[in-house]
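pasting for ref. prot 1 ->
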Amino acid sequence: KLGKGMTMTVTDMTQSNTTNAGGVYGDGAFTAGTGNIQFSTGGKYLAKATIGSGTLNFIGNSNIGSLNYSAVTGTINIADNITVSVGSDFSGIGILTGGESAQLHLSGNANAVFNKAIDYKGKISADSGALSFMSTTGFSELTLDGASATFYDKADIGLVSVKDGSSLFKLDAGIDTLNITGSGSVKFNSTAALNKMDVGAGTVVFAKDASLKTGGSVGGVLDLGVNTLTVGSGNLVLNDNSRLKLTISRDATDVDGNVQSTGYGKIVMSSGSKLDIRSNVLMDLNVDYGLHTAKDGSVFRLVSGDRTGEFVFENNRYSLVKADCDAGTGMCYRL
């Protein structure tokens, strides 16, 4: 037990009994040096721990007030079936590794930068702060209450659950299940491949073409911009009072107003899937300045495939009326 004001610095530590590992706890501070430190608080509280250039290897459940990287080569490793909880502050730049059943719970101000996290396979949850992932990642679960997480490289995550926080994926992302349970937001700046998506009152933004394998639901905002969302199977439900945001860019037509295959947002429902538009669903359409339309208007197919229901559209800047589609099913509009 470390008393208040005490600091214990260890270069290397091995525990012969990792099943019932000894614990370091108390109101003091623990500093891991350059070696491999097999560490645990024994489920008790430790005020502060600092990782040097070595590895702080958690082999027992641990509860730490403040956890900090002091060197970019420092590593936090969490063994399978181990939970590490950080109560007040998690900061610095370092490496994260861990097994599929490892758990890192950050209930305080989480502002760490993971310069390498490709070898972490477990779960991460954060209540507040801003986490940054600089390398390719591939772990099982990310839960954000009020925190944010930015992924600067490719990401492959089983479950992304956001309440009132936010997540930004700058490169390609593969997500098995995306849940936005509150007013939070998730943005994909590159290609996104999702299996299922459920958006509560929040917002999901696709800045590139995206695919949704088995459908889902939207209660808040689905923002496609000029991009295509392709749904593979099942239903995509736009719930009561939700919003679909689309953009028709100036590149969506040629100089004669002939509609091109790209340059405007649309939903493509594959065979066997259906778009279910519930009550008072707003189509929020933005039209770029400089768009050329035909003399009698240009017809855009904004939904392809099977669907039920109709959108609400309100805009005094231009006329958008329902039109017959030339071939196939869907929803076409004359602009």
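and prot 2 ->
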Amino acid sequence: IYSEVEANIEITGGTFTDCNKGGTSYTMYLANGGIVNISGNTTSTTKYGLYADGKTDVNISENIEFTNSWYSIYGRTNNKGPVNIEINGGKISNIYVGTNNSYKSTVNIRSGEIKSSDTILGTDGVTVNIYDGVKIIASNNAIQNVSDINIYGGTINGKIINPINSLNMIGGSITGKAYAIEINDQKSNVNITGGTVTATNGPGIRIRKGTLTLGKDDEGYPSTTSPAITGSTYGVQNDDGIFNFYDGILTGYTYATNGTISNMPKLFSALYSSDGTIAILGIQASFEQVAKVNGIYFDDLKSAIDAALKVNGTVELCKDFTIQEEIQLPEET
């Protein structure tokens, strides 16, 4: 299907293969946008499923299956109007939306499956909303370089990179390899109040720049179970950002955290398991607070030194005391 005028297309079934334009294969090529409704047992195996320039509204439901090698949906605002996508079922390969802040665009994924190497890509001005019933399977990046991401549920297998403005997560799960979430923009704000975040070959969440907030600073007793952040190295690695720890549990097989915890609830501090691999929040008064490493209190000097060696941190003594036993330090310390 090819249209050079604003189109109004409704597809309720059928199989689509090749429609060549400029040597590239499309199921639909809309040169001036339009409205597209796809439902029923509709399948597409072309390089692109839908390619649209300009103001476009896309609605997908039921049992469609777009197994396209490049993009199932490729939309560009092209200074003509927003591209809005509503998905309520079916299986597609991936989505790209290119826009700008003059034409803010929205991708609502309420159910269905998206599976590819990179599943959802975009630009500044794009908001992606993920709901219960959604399954995203990405061998590389699940969501990359969009303005705002809201995760209300669902299962995401693949990492999320660089939410330009915000990522808000209240439920569901994210599982990545090198990390599950990477924050690398100074203005990025990632807020997680529920769900699970897991990395199988690195930190659960890595903060290069920007802000990560776990839970809410609401003056109640912090949750010690949700959100749950797990990494094969660290639960959270903070390189040069802000990390607010108000609720949850952090787990890392090397250490629960690496880098500074910027803020915690008043009267609370991060409490670590004996081997340092699990961290939750607890009342500071439960510790003698002999020493501190990167804002985290320890009730004996040896534990503080062991933690500092693991994360290349600095031990700060919080009180005068007498060392009762020998503490050995590595020669390079």
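The CA atoms of residues 215 and 246 lie 5 Å apart.
The chain has a mean pLDDT of 90.
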